[in-house]
Design goal:
Largest sheet of chain B: none
Largest interface: A-B, 52 and 54 residues
Shape of chain B: globular
Strand content of chain B: under 5%
Structural class of chain A: mainly alpha
Number of strands of chain B: 0
Shape of chain A: globular
Number of helices of chain B: 15
Number of strands of chain A: 0
Radius of gyration of chain B: 24 Å
Helix content of chain B: over 70%
Oligomer: heterodimer
Strand content of chain A: under 5%
Largest sheet of chain A: none
Order of helices and strands of chain A: HHHHHHHHHHHHH
Distance between the termini of chain A: 41 Å
């Protein structure tokens, strides 16, 4: 009797998987490079910026892009490039905080609603629908205006309007997962309901949550910039892209004042959307074959 | 018959949703640290207790909150949306005055979004993984990544200030007398009045904001069209159609696109509701006298009645566009009529 040959277990290392992902998604690669660049610029802003973000130089106000001011200077003679670089320090963490908090709240509510069902589900979903019936920025604008314009309040306002998308998604995922056989098996083994939900069901719902979070990061940065553009963000001295564009609208011919911060928002949102698209393609089984 | 029963159910179910919308706005706008007095009375008036008391009693601010809310609901049932603190006019009149401009802009934008988005989506799906597919995907992702207020500025700078191809902010050139108001749509009213000069002017004002607002929608629509088309194109009946020797155009438009329309219609309905949000920013830049600008003014001055009026209006549009999407399902998918 010859022993049955043991087939080697095929393990695909994370690096190989990542390499495959990047080869198949050139746009996602571009997105990752853009995001890495922005993360670097934001973290290293004091080192890579040519000037101080708040230093005014009235004598040199509104000078067009040149050697001294690569992106020009604004109405107070502040260096636009420096302020664009520093802007990432507000927008990036702002967007991330909003999406992470919304994801935690939304996942918690959605998981409970989908798992428990009955009147709890009804209550949570009706509440979610009411929030979803508002376009994000109108509700966020009302909350931000009511709380008073500030960075923290803009973030609070956005979290309040952001969680329902996650709730709806997670609820649907939990509802379809909880009928799977392995969940039944775990239940039959006497696993407690709480453990069943958080340890057995939820980890299997994570992929679509990650996809939504990635693309939402871009949208959150857009909405944050929008609120700030409307004057509902951090105070004017803080370098923030939306606010810089709003300042630029008053100086139409000094196009550089709004062009560069806009380009900053655009590239970072584009990066998140490229990455989100790639992640979706990689995780969606319907698009994976071929 | 089934459609009517279905519609009645949906309409009945949307009533609690609308009440929820009023409750949410009410709670948010009334339980916050900011004081409408500060936003609406001057410094001098604030220090005069008599003026403050008069203001409070005029706007019902001296009543307990639940009483204020119930009063609001009762008035609402009789079609009274209250009076705007800022404009001192009934909110309903304000909405009537501002809604047509926004409706005209939103419809023009969704037309741009559908035309561009569906075309790109189909082209992209048919040429899957070819260079043109990548180019289109790049553009559709660009569409959803551009800050609308920035795109608006850039387009204004290039096409209005530099090239002079289109008109700038506003609905008509300053100094032009608008046509007699019939629908409130500048373009339609101009046609009705036989004033084709006004029509040309109105269109030249409308085109930039419509492109700006439509860009986001076209990005969304093209992405959904592409994936829906891809799914349909993989079906057996498409292979059969091709095997029969049908023209590519017949396969794509008659066999594939029609069956791919359902998710596309859903996203168009969703984009329409989102357009209204985009109008807040777009209308501000293009000095467009619509609901978006009104909403902004209302929320920054804590003009409660106006905020609640706008929320209700937007909630209503949201519900209506979902309803239209559902009706279109019935039209597009015969299976829906059986279930």
């Amino acid at each position: 009797m010859t022993p049955i040959p043991v087939r080697p277990v095929i393990t695909r290392s994370a690096t190989v998987a990542a390499g495959r992902f990047l080869r198949r998604n050139p746009l996602a690669t571009v997105g990752l490079i853009l995001l890495a660049a922005w993360l670097f610029i934001s973290v290293a802003a004091p080192l890579v910026s040519p000037a101080e973000p708040r230093k005014q130089n009235i004598a040199k106000r509104m000078t067009p892009p040149s050697g001294a001011f690569p992106f020009g200077s604004d109405q107070l003679g502040r260096d636009v490039m420096t302020r664009v670089f520093y802007g990432g320090r507000t927008s990036l963490p702002g967007g991330i905080v909003v999406v992470v908090c919304a994801m935690l709240i939304g996942t918690f509510l959605g998981a409970i609603a989908g798992f428990v069902g009955g009147w709890v589900d009804e209550l949570v979903m009706r509440m979610t629908e009411v929030f979803l019936a508002f376009p994000t920025i109108i509700l966020a604008m009302t909350i931000a205006a009511a709380l008073g314009p500030s960075l923290i309040n803009a973030i609070i306002a956005m979290i309040v309007v952001w969680w329902p998308g996650f709730t709806r998604l997670v609820r649907a995922q939990v509802m379809s997962t909880k009928r799977r056989e392995y969940v039944e098996a775990a239940r039959a083994l006497g696993v407690s309901p709480a453990r069943l939900l958080w340890r057995t069901i939820l980890p299997n719902c994570i992929a679509p949550i990650i996809v939504l979070a990635t693309t939402d990061l871009g949208t959150a940065i857009l909405v944050f910039a929008g609120l700030s553009f409307l004057g509902l963000g951090p105070d004017p001295s803080v370098p923030e892209w939306g606010r810089m564009i709003a300042d630029g609208t008053q100086f139409f011919d000094q196009w550089w004042m709004s062009a560069f911060p806009g380009l900053a928002i655009f590239t970072i949102v584009l990066a998140f959307n490229f990455i989100g698209d790639g992640v979706r393609d990689a995780l969606d089984p319907r698009l994976r074959n071929e | 018959m089934q459609l009517i029963r279905f519609l009645i159910r949906r309409v009945v179910l949307s009533v609690p949703l609308l009440v929820g919308v009023t409750l949410l706005t009410f709670v948010i706008s009334h339980t916050v640290p900011s004081d409408p007095l500060v936003s609406n009375l001057g410094q001098r008036a604030m220090s005069d207790p008599k003026v403050v008391a008069a203001f409070k009693s005029e706007w019902g601010l001296d009543q307990p909150l639940p009483v204020q809310y119930l009063t609001y609901l009762r008035n609402l049932l009789s079609g009274n949306l209250g009076k705007s603190i800022r404009t001192r006019r009934p909110v309903l009149d304000d909405l009537r005055a501002f809604a047509p401009a926004t409706a005209e802009l939103a419809l023009a934008s969704i037309a741009v979004g559908m035309l561009v988005g569906m075309t790109l989506g189909v082209v992209s799906a048919v040429n899957r993984n070819k260079p043109i597919d990548h180019v289109v995907r790049f553009f559709s992702l660009t569409g959803v990544s551009l800050p609308v207020f920035w795109l608006a500025l850039i387009l204004l700078y290039v096409f209005y200030a530099k090239l002079g191809w289109v008109s700038g902010p506003g609905r008509l050139d300053a100094g032009l007398q608008g046509p007699a108001k019939i629908t409130g749509f500048m373009t339609i009213d101009a046609i009705a009045a036989g004033r084709f000069d006004l029509l040309r002017n109105a269109v030249s004002h409308l085109i930039l904001p419509a492109i700006v607002l439509g860009s986001f929608a076209s990005g969304l629509i093209s992405r959904v069209t592409r994936s829906a088309m891809l799914e349909v194109l993989g079906n057996d009946y498409i292979r059969t159609a091709r095997a029969k020797g049908l023209l590519q155009s017949a396969v794509v438009f008659k066999h594939a696109l029609r069956n791919a329309l359902i998710p596309v219609v859903t996203v168009i309905g969703l984009s329409f509701a989102n357009l209204l949000a985009g109008t807040v920013l777009t209308e501000r830049i293009f000095a467009w006298p619509g609901i978006g600008g009104y909403a902004f003014q209302a929320s920054t001055t804590l003009d409660f009645q106006a905020i609640m009026g706008v929320s209700l209006f937007v909630g209503l549009i949201f519900i209506l566009s979902n309803l239209i999407v559902d009706i279109l399902y019935f039209v597009l998918d015969p299976r829906m009529r059986v279930d």
